[in-house]
Write a structure and sequence with these properties.
Distance between the termini: 28 Å
Number of strands: 2
Number of helices: 2
Order of helices and strands: HEHE
Helix content: 25-40%
């Protein structure tokens, strides 16, 4: 699930409440990646949580408007 990397407490609560298997960190916020915040997130999970980040860097072109044709 997508979580707000700028709000580590909310991300940890999402994991604890939902017991998701993985989280996705979009954007540029990094608070969840600092100060042992990931450790707190993992502590609320019954199984280890996979963490994915949006880190392509540089100019990004979104393709949201494509319809598959």
């Amino acid at each position: 699930v997508g979580v707000d990397a700028a709000d580590p407490a909310a991300a940890a609560e999402t994991v604890h409440a939902s017991q998701v298997g993985g989280v996705f960190l979009p954007g540029n916020a990094t608070a969840l990646l600092q100060d042992q915040s990931l450790r707190a997130l993992q502590a609320g999970a019954r199984i280890p949580v996979t963490v994915a980040v949006d880190d392509e860097g540089g100019r990004v072109q979104r393709i949201d408007e494509l319809d598959g044709d």
